């Protein structure tokens, strides 16, 4: 997984869905700061969140990875 590509992709997909970091965090059950860290490349989403994240962003798991 290329962390830099993933961080940009998550941010772009979230914005296309017109979701704030806070809204996406609420849907996934994580703090908005976690979303911010993912998008800034400081951390990666936990493996258990990859499928729910792809569902919320209306993308396939393959696209996310």
Question: What does this molecule look like?
Answer:
This protein has five helices and no strands. It has 65 residues and is mainly α. Helix 2 (21-28) crosses helix 3 (32-39). The longest helix has 14 residues, at 3-16. The model has no long low-confidence stretch (mean pLDDT 93).
β-sheet strand percentage = under 5%
Round the mean pLDDT to the nearest integer and report it. 93
Number of domains: 1
CA-CA gap between termini:
6 Å
Beta strands, count? 0
Judging by the overall fold, what is the CATH architecture? Orthogonal Bundle
| Amount of helix | 55-70%
**What is the rounded Rg?**
10 Å
Assign the CATH superfamily.
lambda repressor-like DNA-binding domains
From the spread of the alpha carbons, the general shape counts as globular
Written as H for each helix and E for each strand, in order along the chain, the element string is HHHHH
- Most strands sheet: none
Q: What's the CATH topology label?
A: 434 Repressor (Amino-terminal Domain)
Under the CATH scheme, which class?
Answer: Mainly Alpha
Structural class: mainly alpha
Number of helical elements: 5
């Amino acid at each position: 997984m290329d962390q830099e590509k993933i961080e940009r992709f998550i941010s772009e997909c979230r914005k296309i869905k017109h979701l704030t970091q806070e809204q996406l965090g609420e849907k996934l059950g994580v703090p908005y700061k976690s979303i911010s860290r993912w998008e800034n490349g400081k951390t990666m989403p936990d493996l258990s969140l990859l499928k729910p994240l792809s569902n919320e962003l209306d993308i396939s798991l393959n696209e996310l990875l």
